[in-house]
Amino acid sequence: MPLVTSKELFKKAYEGGYAIGAFNVNNMEIIQGIVEAAKEENSPLILQVSAGARKYARPVYLKKLVEAAVEDTGLPVVLHLDHGESFEICKACIDDGFTSVMIDGSKLPFEENITLTKKVVDYAHEHGVVVEAELGRIGGVEDNISVGEREATFTDPDQALEFVERTGVDSLAIAIGTSHGAYKFKGEPYLDFKRLEEIMKRLPGFPLVLHGASTVLPEFVEACNKYGGSIHSAKGVPEEMLRKAASLGICKINIDTDLRLAMTAMIRKYLAENPSEFDPRKYLGAAREAIKEMVKHKIRNVLGSSNKL
Ligand SMILES: O=C(CO)COP(=O)(O)O
Ligand SMILES: O=C[C@H](O)COP(=O)(O)O
Ligand SMILES: [Zn+2]
Ligand SMILES: [Zn+2]
């Protein structure tokens, strides 16, 4: 089974009211933990690579590791560029054999975002690759933001329709209150589901993407802190909100922070409990196992993508 695009996967996900997990990958253990979970759950899967991941691992290593994962498991995997900020990085990934790229022009004015996205879409589609874009700002911590501020940063439903029509993009990341990292909300978690429904109404059947969708699982934060870490006031998106988003038009749910926390918690725990151990395979093996169990939980209980192959 070669790498696949997300076209058919999103269509089935939309119709079935579930979402496909898009997990960020940076090294072999993370990739193995995720694909082993998807294999056991019989679930479709998106592996995504950020510019930072490419810089850390170097592009050829990640590409070959993902190819190895596909060969080893036989899973249909989408290889996706996360938050590409220029035409050049999108082109490099398309030329490298990625099946999906994100062009993130969300920091640009609306017209410039359209122009850049359209340029990537034209190149990608010529090469059989699909494109995700972003409209609205998926920011940092949002504390009791006013309606005016929300209007300025959250995705405008009418603009979303115009953006999709004018760019021909395949999926769209929207801002409805999530943010990247482990500190998503200072007060009560809040997602603007009314806005999501308004966007869906204008774009029926069109796949939407939720970034910043880690739940920041308390068990991993607690383990980090128990074994020497210092992570305070961390808060993620509650699982029931993700389930609701998946049952609406959200077809792709992005998860990175939960992988980082699972890995760090396990390495801290393992080394604290085995102070004389210095074989990296031991603590990285424990981390890989924790990632696998966490991803299985997400697939089965949050995304709803078990047995959807
Ligand atoms: O959106 C993400 C990657 O694009 C990851 O979000 P989290 O930081 O919530 O895991
Ligand atoms: O959206 C951000 C992802 O979590 C990737 O993070 P990164 O750019 O540090 O690799
Ligand atoms: Zn962005
Ligand atoms: Zn993101």
TrEMBL record:
Gene3D superfamilies: Aldolase class I (3.20.20.70). One of its GO terms (molecular function) is fructose-bisphosphate aldolase activity. Zn(2+) 2 binds at D104, E134. One of its GO terms (biological process) is fructose 1,6-bisphosphate metabolic process. Its EC number is 4.1.2.13. Zn(2+) 1 binds at H83, H180, H211. Pfam families: F_bP_aldolase. Binds 2 Zn(2+) ions per subunit. One is catalytic and the other provides a structural contribution. Dihydroxyacetone phosphate binds at G181, G212, A213, S214, N254, I255, D256, T257. SUPFAM superfamilies: Aldolase. Its cofactor is Zn(2+). This is Fructose-bisphosphate aldolase. It comes from Thermovenabulum gondwanense. The lineage of its organism: Bacteria, Bacillati, Bacillota, Clostridia, Thermosediminibacterales. The gene is fba.
